[in-house]
Amino acid sequence: MTAVRNSDYAASKAALMAFFDSLRQELVDEGDDKTSITNIYPYIINTTLFKGFSGLALKVIPILKKEDVAKRIFDAVYFKEQEVYIPWYTNLLGIGMIIIRSFSERLRIKIIQVLMGDGMKSLECRGLEHQKL
Predict the structure, then answer these.
(1) pTM for the model
(2) pLDDT for the residue 5
(3) Angle ∠(113,58,39) on CA atoms, nearest 5
(4) Is residue 45 helix, strand or coil?
(5) With CB atoms 3.0 to 4.6 Å apart as the test, which of 39, 63, 73, 119 could cross-link to 4 if both were Cys?
(6) Is 93 exposed, middle or buried (0-12, 13-18, 19+ CB in 10 A)?
(7) Tell me: the pLDDT tens digits for 36-66?
(8) Pair 24, 37: CB distance under 8 Å
(9) Helices 90-103/105-116 angle, 10° precision
């Protein structure tokens, strides 16, 4: 089994989480109670972006319908929620992986490999030229 190879995605997601956490704190410090920030973390959505995605995770968590995701995002923004995981239990899976990491990083990586399979590498990239560095 091969690695998922999505380090750029993971790093950018972590950076955005940290940025918006810091920005929320700055808004509180400045007394701004009118501005709200909502982070949305959806699972795989049934769009062409994820066509070809493979992995056991698809048998554990169903692919999301874009209409359902759009409604959940609308509700989250309307009710000024800060962090929204779609579906909600994917947050618990993330917490579980943090706990597993505290015991064994190798086990955590093996679980990710099993769940994600070829993951992002299996996606079809339409209209994008792949360049070797």
Answers:
(1) 0.75
(2) 60
(3) 90
(4) strand
(5) 119
(6) middle
(7) 999 999 988 988 877 777 778 888 888 899 9
(8) yes
(9) 140
129-to-50, 122, 124, 126 alpha-carbon distances in Å: 17, 15, 11, 8
* CA 48 to chain CA mean position, Å: 17
Q: If you search the block for the tokens 């959806």, which residue do you land on? A: 42
Amino acid present at 75: D
d(C-alpha 132, C-alpha 86), whole Å = 34
Which contiguous run of DSSP H or E holds residue 39? strand 39-42
Rounded Cα gap, residues 96 and 85, in angstroms: 15
Contact 66, 46 (CB under 8 A): yes
Question: Alpha helices of the chain — where are they, by DSSP H?
Answer: 7-29, 57-60, 66-78, 90-103, 105-116
Computed from CA positions of residues 80, 10, 19, 133, in that sequence, does the dihedral angle turn out positive or negative?
A: negative
Q: Which residue has the tokens 């955005």?
A: 16
Average pLDDT on 88-109 reads 91
Give 14-25 pLDDT, tens digit per residue.
999 999 999 999
Check pLDDT > 90 for residue 8: no
